[in-house]
């Protein structure tokens, strides 16, 4: 049976099904490989992860974002509810804006990170990697709020790279260049509404496009027609993973374990231990984990997330980190960065280690022609992201 015959309506009877863009992505998947992301099929790569990476850094790449878990939160107490749920001050996310956030257990350990889209007054969408409907409903006790998972009701594409704005302008989205980072705009499109956010997971100029699934195919067609002269290409999960490491972005299940999925408490992380202390607002009177996070701020954290510049050209995948002869941390994401021309990594180290300028040794194992080799390489903690071009923040966005 061809999986293209399945639809979102079948999701109670099937373990995984195609996205609304499948009729367009399937012919482009030259490698014929699919993996599961949430409830959907997702392409690890379409033709070559390295070339897809370069397409996004030098032109623009399109990633099928439909599998992103989405929850619609509305009602008279929507703001109060979200302020109770997450660590940041949600009232500062005005209508037409998007805000990054995390939410925690009562022990101050991160359950997940995600984005809050303030669609209209009292109407929000919370996007995350994992399903959280049970947690969201449990925390809704006492609030006049409506919560529903609408993952299958919204199709989404991420359009990322230097020519992304030029592509959308050619598609007819007037004034798109004037959107600021984390802005939201709504456009009339083929008899429906297209929502565009200046957001992304690549650390570059980029946008995310949100539309009802019935219009997914026409959106894909219009986008690729507009981007034909701007180098537009589909990209898969492997290329996106490289892009997000260069940007210094963390990922649940990779750089931290969601608190609800761990057996040992020492395997979880707090916002402070993930470098996200700026998302914790103690001016709010109450939110999940506030007491524990206050205690951590007083007493200090166990771990520190760091960015490492590593000598040599061997990616330090899953490497142990040493200070002298003592293991003080582990690499959680690593790559050879074509843009930084360096071996780079994100890692978790024991405090008090991990201040910018600190030097460690990483133990790298790599295999060539069935032979394993071991390298002890010097690593330096750096403060800033490895990729953060001016065009990412420029308004109006540049037209390449």
Topology:
Layout: H1 22-28, E1 35-37, E2 40-42, H2 49-58, E3 60-64, E4 69-74, H3 78-85, E5 97-104, E6 110-120, E7 123-128, H4 133-138, E8 146-149, E9 155-160, H5 164-170, E10 184-189, E11 192-197, E12 206-211, H6 216-226, E13 232-234, H7 237-247, H8 290-299, E14 303-310, E15 320-323, E16 326-337, E17 342-350, E18 359-368, E19 371-382
Parallel strand pairs: 3-13
Antiparallel strand pairs: 1-2, 3-9, 4-7, 4-8, 5-6, 6-7, 9-12, 10-11, 11-12, 14-17, 14-19, 15-16, 15-18, 16-17, 18-19
Helix pairs in contact: 2-7
Q: What does this protein structure show overall?
A:
- The structure is a single chain.
- By secondary structure, the chain is an alpha+beta fold.
- Among the domains are: 3-66 and 154-247, 2-Layer Sandwich (Gyrase A, domain 2), CATH 3.30.1360.120; 303-385, Aminomethyltransferase beta-barrel domains (Elongation Factor Tu (Ef-tu), domain 3), CATH 2.40.30.
- 18% of the residues lie in helices and 32% in strands.
- It has eight helices and 19 strands.
- The strands form four sheets. Strands 10-11-12-9-3-13 form a six-stranded mixed β-sheet, with helices on both faces. It has a six-stranded antiparallel beta barrel with strand order 14-17-16-15-18-19. It has a five-stranded antiparallel β-sheet with strand order 5-6-7-4-8.
- α2 packs across α7.
- Mean pLDDT is 95; it is low at 1-8.
Quick tags:
400 residues; alpha+beta; Gyrase A, domain 2; 6-stranded mixed β-sheet; 6-stranded antiparallel beta barrel; 18% helix; disordered N terminus
Instruction: From the alpha carbons, calculate the radius of gyration and give it in angstroms.
Output: 21 Å
Class from secondary-structure proportions:
alpha+beta
| Helix-strand string | HEEHEEHEEEHEEHEEEHEHHEEEEEE
Biggest β-sheet strands, sense, barrel: 6 strands, mixed
């Amino acid at each position: 049976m061809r999986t293209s015959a399945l639809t979102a309506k079948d999701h109670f009877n099937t373990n995984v099904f195609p996205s609304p863009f499948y009729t367009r992505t399937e012919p482009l998947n030259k490698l014929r490989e699919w993996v599961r992301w949430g409830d959907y099929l997702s392409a690890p790569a379409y033709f070559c992860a390295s070339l897809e990476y370069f397409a996004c850094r030098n032109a623009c790449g399109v990633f099928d974002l439909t599998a992103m878990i989405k929850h619609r939160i509305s009602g008279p107490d929507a703001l109060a509810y979200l302020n109770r749920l997450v660590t940041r001050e949600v009232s500062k996310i005005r209508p037409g804006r998007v805000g990054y956030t995390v939410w925690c257990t009562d022990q101050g350990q991160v359950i997940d990170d995600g984005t809050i889209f303030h669609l209209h007054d009292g109407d929000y969408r919370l996007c995350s990697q994992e399903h959280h409907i049970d947690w969201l409903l449990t925390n809704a006790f006492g609030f006049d709020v409506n919560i529903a998972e609408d993952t299958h009701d919204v199709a989404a594409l991420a359009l990322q790279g230097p020519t992304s704005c030029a592509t959308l302008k050619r598609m007819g989205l007037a004034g798109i260049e004037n959107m600021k980072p984390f802005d939201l705009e709504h456009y009339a499109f083929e008899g429906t509404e297209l929502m565009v956010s200046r957001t992304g997971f690549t650390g570059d100029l980029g946008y995310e496009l949100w539309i009802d699934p019935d219009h997914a195919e026409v959106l894909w067609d219009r986008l690729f027609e507009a981007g034909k002269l701007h180098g537009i290409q589909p990209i898969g999960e492997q290329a996106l993973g490289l892009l997000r490491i260069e940007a210094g972005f963390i990922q649940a299940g990779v750089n931290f374990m969601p608190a609800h999925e761990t057996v040992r408490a020492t395997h979880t992380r707090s916002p402070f231990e993930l470098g996200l202390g700026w998302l914790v607002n103690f001016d709010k009177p109450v939110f999940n984990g506030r007491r524990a996070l206050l205690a951590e701020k007083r007493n200090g954290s166990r771990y520190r997330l760091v960015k490492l510049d590593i000598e040599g050209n061997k990616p330090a995948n899953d490497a142990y980190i040493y200070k002298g002869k003592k293991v003080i941390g582990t690499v959680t994401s690593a790559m050879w960065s074509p843009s930084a021309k360096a071996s780079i990594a994100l890692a978790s180290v024991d405090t008090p280690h991990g201040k910018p300028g600190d030097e460690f040794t990483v133990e790298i194992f790599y295999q060539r022609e069935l032979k394993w080799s071991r390298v002890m390489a010097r690593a330096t903690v750096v403060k800033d992201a490895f990729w953060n071009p001016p065009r990412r923040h420029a308004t109006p966005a540049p037209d390449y």
